[in-house]
Amino acid sequence: MIGTDWAFYRYESVRAALPQAEFPPVSKSGHDLGDTAADYDAYILDAFGVLNRGETAISGAVERMAALRALGKRLVVLTNAASYTRAGVLAKYRRLGFDFSPSEVVSSRDVAFAALPKLPQGKVWAAAAAEGDDFSDAPDAVRIAQLAENPELLRAAGGFLLLSSARWSEEDTAAVTRALLANPRPLVVANPDLVAPRESGLSVEPGLIAHEITGRTGGRAVFFGKPFGNAFETALARLEGIPRHRVAMVGDTLHTDVLGGAAAGIGTILISEHGLFRGHDVAPYIAKCAIRPDWIVATT
Hints:
There is one protein chain. By secondary structure, the protein is of the alpha/beta class. The protein is built from ten helices and 16 strands. It has helices at 4-13, 61-70, 86-96, 108-114, 153-156, 170-182, 206-217, 229-237, 254-263, 283-289; strands spanning 28-30, 42-45, 52-53, 56-57, 74-79, 105-107, 125-128, 144-146, 159-162, 187-189, 195-198, 201-204, 222-223, 247-251, 267-271, 295-297. It has a seven-stranded parallel β-sheet, sandwiched between helices. A five-stranded parallel β-sheet has the order 8-7-9-10-13, covered by helices on one side. Strands 3-4 form a two-stranded antiparallel ribbon. The longest helix is centred in the middle third of the chain and has 13 residues, at 170-182. The mean pLDDT is 96.
């Protein structure tokens, strides 16, 4: 059973592979993001657990974004959801009632596609991807194909790209492990999350799959997305002119959102009621891992 405790300790087990950071000695507390407005001029927002839970908007989140804009705050969404194209991400947010512009959304998919390692000529990336993903948003020089639709790619691909876990099974993990042991190749992960909050609970995400594979092969994966600096630097570039100490990362996890934000030198806000720690007292988890946000607020 994948639950909060299981996910927390799994994140702790891969802590050595995550960025290092310093944290405040204590956290401020509040009810919602409005309580933090005096401290920050801009917010970098996680999606799952902050704006939405699965395909459902979090109650009050749409109105909170409008209230922050009315105060003159700048907003950027930084999501590890790599299953969607940019157009798909924007369409989802608009369907949920948000009004983010294209320049206000950064996905780990965008970051990964912009920096994919170069493969030998003629080679293709074998992607774990959602059904129907056509990779039309990838750079022209990058060739990507659906691994689920062409098992021959286990042998022939130049590298493996993990975008989605929607069609993934333990048998796929075993198959890619065998393929990499037989012929080591790059393993790129465009969603470092281990789990994600859905309406019905926590789902397995590509980051968990990647750590399972590297644990079995002894190899290394290249990660794009939170908590890694490549994602934060891309998001911060959208907030030019705002000092880092006046920017806050808002998220629902300690090991991706809070750790990554602190490592990037920005403020951090943990939302406690809607994501990984929903229904739990977050204080014991903070004490165990020593990843402490600047603020803890109940809801967006």
